[in-house]
Amino acid sequence: MKSKNLVLVVLALVVLVLVGLGAYLWPKLNVSVERPYVAVYMQTGDLYFGRISYFPRLALRDVYVLQGTGATDPTQPSLQIVPMSSTVWGPDRLVLNYDQVVFIGKVGADSQVMQAINQGR
Questions:
Q1: Among 26, 46, 49, 94, which has the highest number of CB atoms less than 10 A from its own CB?
Q2: Helix, strand, coil percentages for the chain (3-state, nearest 5)
């Protein structure tokens, strides 16, 4: 009976080590998994577009944001989608606080957002 428990403990330790090693190495492998673009709306009112990942933390890559263009007519706000990498602090990855997320939705392939992203590339 003790040898059976010992085998289970060793097996559990091996699995934990492999999972930990995988979590450590996965970001370094640069595995190219084509993820769809999503819109993430935050409690702060910020709206981000990007490729989402949930592990090891909720994050966006290839991030775009809505930016006002300073329209002269306040009744006709003018917005454009710009890559976050062109902002002053220009991050390549944006880690999000899941508690602050209002919603996450897939961006349609034929949407105006995707057209703007494809034009900006």
A1: 49
A2: 35, 30, 35
Scanning the structure block, which residue is given the tokens 């409690």?
Answer: 43
**Domain 33-120 belongs in CATH node 2.60.120.830:** no
pTM score, whole prediction? 0.66
Residues 55, 56, 60, CA angle at the centre, nearest 5°? 65
Spell out a b/e string for 68-85, using b for 16 or more CB atoms within 10 Å of the CB, else e: eeeeeeeeeeeeebebbe
Q: Hey, where are the domains in the chain?
A: 1-31, 33-120
Tokens read off for 43: 């409690």
Which tokens is 71 given?
Answer: 């329209």
pLDDT, tens only, 48-87: 999 999 888 999 999 998 877 665 666 666 778 888 888 7
**Contacting residues for 119 by C-beta, under 8 A, at least 6 apart:** none
